[in-house]
Amino acid sequence: MKKYIQKHMYKWHRRFGILVLIPTILWTVSGMMHPFMSNWFKTELPNTFYQEEKIEMNENSLELKEILLRNKITGFKNVRIVNYQSKNYFQVKKIDNSIRYFNTLDGEELVDGERLYAESIARFITGDQKNKISSIELLTDFTPHYKYVNRLLPVWKVSFERDDHMDIYVETAQSKFATFNDDKRKTFIWIFSNFHNWEFMNLFKSASTQIFVMLLFLGIIFFSAISGIVIYCFHWKFFKKPESGNKIGFLRKYHRILGVSFSLITLLFAFSGGYHLIQKLKPDDRMTFLNEPIFKSSEIPEKIRKLTKNETNLAFVKLDDRALLQTQFFDFKTKSLSYAYYDLKSGDQLKDGNEKYCTFLAKNCIAKKGEKMDVDKMEMVTDFTNEYGFVNKRLPVMAFHLKNKDKSSYYIDPLTGHLAAYVQNGARLEGLSFAFLHKFHFLDFLGKNARDGILVFFAMSLFIISILGLILFLKK
Description:
- The protein is α+β, with helices and mostly antiparallel strands.
- Helices cover 40% and strands 20% of the residues.
- The protein has eleven helices and 15 strands.
- The protein has helices at 2-19, 21-40, 64-70, 113-126, 183-196, 207-234, 247-261, 263-280, 353-368, 425-438, 448-475; strands spanning 75-84, 87-94, 99-103, 133-139, 155-160, 167-171, 176-181, 295-296, 313-319, 322-331, 336-343, 375-381, 397-402, 409-412, 419-423.
- Strands 3-2-1-8 form a four-stranded antiparallel β-sheet, covered by helices on one side.
- A hairpin with a 6-residue loop joins strand 13 and strand 14 (409-412).
- Helix 1 (2-19) runs antiparallel to helix 6 and helix 8 (263-280) packs antiparallel against helix 10 (425-438).
- The longest helix is centred in the middle third of the chain and has 28 residues, at 207-234.
């Protein structure tokens, strides 16, 4: 009976090993490529943060209301001020989401302002003022090269006529640099997308099908690793020692030794990868939580509060039915942003305005999620953390931590009205699993290069184990 179990466990171990050979090779190769893409061979840009010239309104500037009425704009979603070629412009986001630019001194419209401003940001980021622009395209959805992980939409894709075919993605509505792709990065993205995330399965047009297939193979890898450990550690007497000169025997020996030696790593990668995929079955709906009220031009007072030397921009927001002017204070040295709020009718400043406005936004999000506004802690988050990581893009945000059983946390961006992130205990646990078991962030104290080097070593080891297994199968 014991020999029967040993024989059949070994047989299924071999079968499963061959079945997951291709997926294992795809995952290990792309895993090795990731540090090259994100760290070692990453193209360095002159600027990764857009800093326009100091914006100041002077006594010669026309009032916003006058410019709106002159251009027959009766309603809008927002207005801010931008600087283009040393001139200030009111950037007006209309109700139909189109954006127009009007000179603050004479009210003249900047023709094709969106394209010109997008190009200006892109040239600042690249430091490239000479090469021609091959194309400028507005993206309203994510693409194979501009993925959901970048979060920001809509963005302009600005492509340069250069040897590296550089593409810069910028969000003009907030003057933000989103990401970039040159030829090198495009190649890495294609490899990682198809080898690691299996985006070639998009032909099924079903994200759940793709996830279930990947989970199936990860489950088989997990079982194959477990069975290999059991066979080698508890039934080692079942195997004969390789005879001298027997190449197959020695290949099998080293396949087993390496397999057992790195079995824990296999289990960690398979488990954390599978756990991460399961979380993806739950749709990320944060993009649907956006507070973007409509303002009538008649709501704007004849004279809006002038920007002082300490204020860097403005916006319009609504708290319930109360129209407010939001002024922003950006410290270019610390890259920190703070806010003040003024009632458009009275001109009075709203005490604790940012807290009240973010609470209003949070209430709407929490109600939409079907949860109760039972706040345990509220805090301003000014740096990315383990829970609110760089992938969320937006800073600063106001965090609302609820008292419910799932410990729900809402991260609100007062600049755009977006729900920047929604986190519960399940997501926190999965995030820790992925960060520590899949990306080895517990080795961060060694430095990024050392951590990535260790990851590449483990991935290469699993790749060699798979190749040895394939050679054994072919020789048999």
